[in-house]
Amino acid sequence: MSDHALLQGTLAGDHDAFAELVGRYRNQITSYIYRMTNDYDGAVDLAQETFLRVYRAAGRYQTTHAFSTYIYRIATNLAISELRKRKRRRLVSLTGLLTSGEGQEPRTLTRRTSGRCRISAWSKPKSAQ
User: Fold this and answer.
1) Pairing relation of β-strands 108-114 and 117-123?
2) Tens-place pLDDT, residues 32-86
3) Closest to 20 measured CA to CA, from 30, 28, 9
4) Are residues 36 and 60 in the same domain?
5) Domain range enclosing 52
6) Rounded to two decimals, what is the model's pTM?
7) What distance in Å separates the CA atoms of residue 50 and residue 29, rounded to the nearest whole number?
């Protein structure tokens, strides 16, 4: 049975048709996302989210396109969103880094620009110099 027919069956309420689609693409989608994110547990979660989105949007699927293209695009978008979230989470608070130790003045982070290259340097606050 084709992917298009299985998706039509899903729209008609046939849960076995959707289970067949999941069985066909589960491993490939999980592997694809894992290669993008390098996190297996996260890839499994994103693959599950991919299938959930396919199920929810089954009525909007256009049969003029291959189903594999459709599902891989959803998986790609989810993986890219996850990578963007990770990038934002990597930002670290500098509060602890700005204190130089007991009894010493706090230090500030200044940014100097030299041509096209930015150089960050630690210095004492101007009031302490």
Assistant:
1) antiparallel
2) 999 999 999 999 999 999 999 999 999 898 888 899 999 999 999 999 999 999 8
3) 9
4) yes
5) 3-89
6) 0.67
7) 8
